[in-house]
Design brief:
Mean pLDDT: 93
Helix content: 25-40%
Strand order of the largest sheet: 1-2-3-15-8-9-13
Shape: globular
Pfam family, one: DUF6002
Radius of gyration: 22 Å
Largest sheet: 7 strands, mixed
Low-confidence stretches: 1-9
CATH topology of the largest domain: Rossmann fold
Number of strands: 17
CATH class of the largest domain: Alpha Beta
């Protein structure tokens, strides 16, 4: 059975530079962020830069050149139109982390110019965020915005994400590699990198400042990532305005903490406050997660993060798989009820859940968890539809080292089939990332294993 929808015109297409083309508006929104007191750093030797962005000089424009985005039609599924918001066009990252990372580094550049003090950006990461920040730092050095001694970066990733870490402009130059260490932590919980990172900053920032003169910026604060994603809503408004679309709309995003969707909705607020769009037409949101960390969907559905909110799975002897049919928001079949589908999505108990829950309560939407089995079953169709949108996925699902986009597409299809998305809605899938081994060279032995905060301090200031 298929659902009917209003007749629509040919799918719109468009491209933009998400940061250069919307730079003036982003600077205006940045002033709003600065009007709210930022979290004061508790540790001596640290800083929290203002949201001030540098003037858009030729050097800055060169630095931001890779912030490209594309809107393409991606066919239909059960008569519901699909659009792809392709956010993974930077070959240095292949993920949407490009955009906030460039703005974080732009703020660091402005801070260094204003204060004259060197700065070290420090970030725990599941992999992609660290890759994008390193790419942005190297771009800033290459564009002549800063010198290698003025701006450095240290990244800490879980060992489980080591295969995602790639060689880049910082690792290929011996001097830059020494100044910008990329460390890994071998721990049973991938998210332990955040706790160790916090301990490192609190304990050693002052000592590092005394030895090097540099201040540490612990860059995980939410607004650091919201600002760039405001431009997603601005781009959508230009290429396919919500208010002029024939169908209502649901935005679909594979999420760990949903920074991207939160930034998008901040952009929607800007459009609505400016009288450019009607809040009554605000799109719905569909959160897509995996079974290893389904916390945002659990919070949305049950109000808490406890895994008791998961349905009970039963092992079927006939196929050796786990099945459930009690809750349409979770996989009907999986090889493992605790399945780690992609280490990108590693956040437990995200502090962003209440914000996203409130947005969905006000404006509509839902959440769904997908399994690897479901992704593989959907993969031939996903690959075919995304080819129409200019995305050439590998023939083998197993070849994907980053599965965000396929997870989002699988979640969209499952949600349509299970009536979790209204039949009169068109879907916008946020293409937040995909890559294979052909897109990068692994970092390999250049990764520096650490076990303690003291180990991190030695890597940064021997």
């Amino acid at each position: 059975m298929t659902h009917s929808r209003p007749a629509v015109s040919a799918a719109p297409e468009g491209t933009a530079n998400l940061l250069i083309d919307y730079y003036d508006t982003l600077r205006e929104v940045a002033e709003e962020f600065d009007a709210v007191p930022r979290a004061a750093s508790a540790a001596p030797g640290t800083c929290v830069p203002a949201f001030a962005l540098p003037e858009p000089t030729a050097q800055v424009r060169e630095f931001l050149e890779v912030a490209r985005v594309r809107w393409r039609g991606a066919g239909e599924y059960r008569d519901q139109r699909l659009h792809l918001l392709d956010l993974a066009l930077n070959p240095g990252t292949n993920t949407t982390k490009t955009f906030p990372s460039l703005l974080i580094v732009a703020r660091a550049v402005e801070h260094i110019r204003t204060t004259g003090r060197p700065l070290v950006i420090f970030s725990p990461t599941s992999g992609n965020k660290g890759t994008a920040l390193r790419d942005a730092v190297h771009r800033a050095i290459r564009a002549g915005l800063v010198t290698p001694d003025q701006l450095r970066i240290m990244v800490l990733a879980p060992h489980s994400s080591a295969a995602k870490l790639r060689q880049d402009g910082l690792s290929r130059d011996p001097e830059l590699a020494a100044l910008n260490p990329l460390c890994t932590l071998d721990s049973p919980r991938a998210e332990d990198v955040k706790a160790l990172g916090r301990e490192f900053v609190d304990t050693y920032a002052a000592r590092i400042h005394e030895r090097t003169g540099a201040l540490l910026w612990f860059s995980l604060e939410l607004n650091n990532y919201l600002l760039a994603d405001v431009a997603r809503a601005l781009f959508e408004h230009d290429v396919h305005p919500v208010d002029q679309a024939a169908a209502a709309r649901t935005h679909v995003h594979a999420v760990s903490s949903a920074f991207g969707l939160l930034g998008y909705h901040r952009g929607r607020q800007y459009l609505e406050r400016s009288g450019l769009s009607d809040i009554a037409r605000r799109p719905h949101s569909l959160l897509v997660q995996h079974l290893s960390t389904p916390d945002m969907v659990l919070s949305l559905r049950s109000g808490g993060f406890e895994r008791t909110g998961l349905p009970a799975y039963r092992l079927e002897q006939a196929d050796g798989l786990y099945h459930q049919d009690a809750d349409a928001h979770f996989p009907s079949v999986t090889e493992d009820p605790d399945e780690l589908l992609d280490p990108t999505f590693y956040t437990h108990r995200p502090a962003t859940s209440p914000l996203m829950n409130d947005i969905i309560a006000r404006h509509g939407g839902d959440g769904i968890v997908v399994s690897g089995r479901e992704c593989r079953e959907r993969y031939p169709l996903i690959r075919e539809l995304l080819a129409e949108a200019g995305v050439a996925l590998p023939r083998d699902f197993a070849a994907l080292h980053e599965r965000s986009l396929v997870m989002a597409m699988t979640g969209a299809f499952n949600a349509i089939d299970r009536s979790l998305i209204k039949p009169d809605h068109e879907l916008v899938v946020h293409g937040s990332g995909w890559y294979t081994a052909e897109h990068y060279t692994p970092l390999g032995t250049a990764v520096r294993p650490v076990a303690t905060a003291a180990d991190l301090a030695r890597e940064l200031a021997p």
